[in-house]
Amino acid sequence: MNRVPQLEDLPDPSGRSVLLRADFNVPIAAGGTIDDDLRIRAALPTIQWLQDKGAKVTACSHLGRPKGKPDAKYSMEPVRRRLQELAPGVELLENLRFDAGEEGNDPAFVAKLVEGHDLYVNDAFGAAHRAHASIVGPPRTLPSAAGRLLAKEVEVLGKLLTDPAKPFVAVLGGSKVSDKLGVIEALLDKVDRILIGGGMCFTFFKAQGMQIGDSLLEEDQVENAKRLLDTGKILLPEDVVGLSPEGVIGDPSKGGDTRMFGRGLPDGWKGLDIGPGAAAAFGEVIDEARTILWNGPMGVFEDPRFEAGTRAVAEACAETRGFTIVGGGDSASALAKFRLDDDIDHVSTGGGASLELIEQGDLPGLEALRGASNAQ
């Protein structure tokens, strides 16, 4: 992966105005309370460096999906208040997605964004896979650089793609094979094993001729699953936890039985977690690995009846001596729930961006930075 310009590659920021694209897409509860300010705090090293160099920093970010028009529900005001507490003196523009020009990559919106600014810094790894105005537009006209957070993500994931310590194991979960197909194919010639859990494992079971009850199935991915199984690198769960037909996912109070099964489930039952045997087997493989990439939960961990598999994988990733990378999204949420995030070597701030970088080897935001006038 070609180098992107770093903060040190910028012209002297002293006395200059810097447009900082951050990822402040934080969870906000009713009443405007920020549930988790991690993404705001993650931008502080970049902000501190710029301020120490004498720059005036104006940050910008998206928040939620306001569909190209102002929506008070997605106002940046709660973020603005927290940012002022953490980094006094930093201005914050209103939600970028209040203007349809952001997602439409409208040159007129780009021109409005960069007006009055001398330099541009992208520290929004979680949005770097989007060819949106604030991501790909400013480097066309302003000297530009990757912030500390973006640079770290690129360094860690780049090493994963080019020189991972062996054995290299990927643990992939989530609901759909189609969401992870490109990543699996990109990883096949790099990894030693791929452990498959979550709802996507049932499409693989179907490819083996198993009965999967009423579990998640992507019929159009069965042939792809067969092809991937033929590589010999895929390890599937040896047992699963199922919910009876009358049960309701996410609401134990509605009743329903849970039961352990091998790889086959009776009609009407839904597989919603890997079983204890699978958790132990996955844990052994993770323990022996020297590089581990985990993306996607092993089950519906938000429901306490189906959290054990994801918790076991999280604990194995936290305890292994290998270098562990967790690809953001639901996996990062699970780590936070189980209070294990501090025990992971690198938790990515962008689930979709990390997967796309692995799959494609580049991102629109990185390509744009490499095209800036100050890029070497």
Description:
The protein has 376 residues and is an alpha/beta fold. The chain contains 15 helices and 14 strands. It has helices spanning 38-42, 44-52, 77-86, 100-103, 107-114, 133-136, 148-162, 177-187, 201-207, 222-229, 276-288, 308-319, 329-337, 351-360, 364-370; strands spanning 17-21, 56-60, 91-92, 119-122, 144-146, 168-172, 193-196, 234-235, 240-243, 258-261, 270-274, 291-295, 323-326, 346-347. A six-stranded parallel sheet has the order 8-7-6-12-13-14, sandwiched between helices. A five-stranded parallel sheet has the order 3-2-1-4-5, sandwiched between helices. It has a three-stranded antiparallel sheet with strand order 10-9-11. Helix 13 links the parallel strand 13 (323-326) and strand 14 (346-347). Helix 8 (177-187) packs across helix 14 (351-360). The longest helix is centred in the middle third of the chain and has 15 residues, at 148-162. The two termini are 14 Å apart.
